[in-house]
Write a structure and sequence with these properties.
This is Tetratricopeptide repeat protein. The chain is mainly alpha-helical. It has a domain at 321-415: Tetratricopeptide repeat domain (Serine Threonine Protein Phosphatase 5, Tetratricopeptide repeat, Alpha Horseshoe). 80% of the residues lie in helices and 0% in strands. It contains 23 helices and no strands.
Length: 416
Amino acid sequence: MLRKVFVLFFILFISKTDAQTSVLAVTDEFLEKGNYQLALEQLQTEENPSIEVLNKLADIYQKTGNYTNAINYYNQVYAIKPTDKVKEQLGKCYQYTGNSKKAMQLQSEVLKDNPDNLLLQYNLAKLYGANRKTEKAIDLLNRLVVKDPENPNYHYELGEALEKIKKNPLSPYLEAFRLDTTHVKSMYQLAKYYNKVKVRDSADIFIDKGLEIDSENLNFLQLKAQNQFLKKKYDTTIVYLKRLEALNFKTPFVNKLFGLSYFKVDDYENALLYFKKVMKVDFKDTNTLFNIGLVYVAMKDYKNAEMTFYMSIAFQRPEYDKDYFELGKVQLELKKVKKAITSFQKGYDNNQRNYQLLFQIAMLSDDYYKDKKIALRHYKEYVENYSSKDEKSTLYAKSRIKEINKELFMKGKEEE
């Protein structure tokens, strides 16, 4: 009897295993055709899924970007059979969801047990670099460079990490390029580096090489245009800028360079056209306003030039009137009336749109100075320029103007 039960159990186990094997085979057929939804539906029909089915579900969810479900199924797999492979996949899923702390924890645990897993080491190094753990990233990348010195990406990432801590990245970038002369990212970094240290001929070598590989690369086109401008080759600058424009790359940097280049070749209409495009993005761009003023001067349009230079000066001046207003109020609390008047005056001189400062100056002058003409002058200025700003303040100012004028009139009579 016992033998029959065992045989029956064995048959059921084999049948279940065969059934799940069959499910996995069908799933693989769906996946080959790219139909992951049918694959998931097929797998989810299993009432008591095996570890293989759970793992397959997790893999599909991970590959299709549904990381929450992937984590759920990988956790189920790990609960049945904890392995570093599953833990590594969990780490990747947490990384993709943005939970970098958990991802770094899991991946570092796996790496501790598998120090020769170079792919994991590389991924963890990049993760450290992206999360401001630069020293840890550099440590891993230095180990990778020793273990696999022929991989250009390891050298490139090392250069990136060194740059973050203000160390010279030149050697790793050059090594990456030496190992792979089509490594575009290294070429770009080398071009930027040589531009920064003003070795423009070397920068041009890498820029031109980059454009040979990808003639529409926006980074190299920008650098090329910039370098041509610095070499005073303005017509060539415009050629490269037009290539950027044709690629629908119309940034303030591009428009500024267009404006400057057209100005240098005496094409003032186009210079104005592009400078005004910059102003649409930031109407307080004082450098561009200054350049527009220069264009108007070159065109002998002195009226517009004057207005533009005024605007440039106004926007360059820092506004600290509010600071002086608060300082003055504090000085009043400390009974330092003369200092408060001085602070309010400095604030008003800085920003004459701040009518509250002028009103404070008028009232304090009224109380502090025996010569009422000082307060009268401020009250009149307030009424003339800001009568619509504050009804109560305006009524008070008008009443004091009347009273002071009357006082001054009476005083004049007495003196006679």
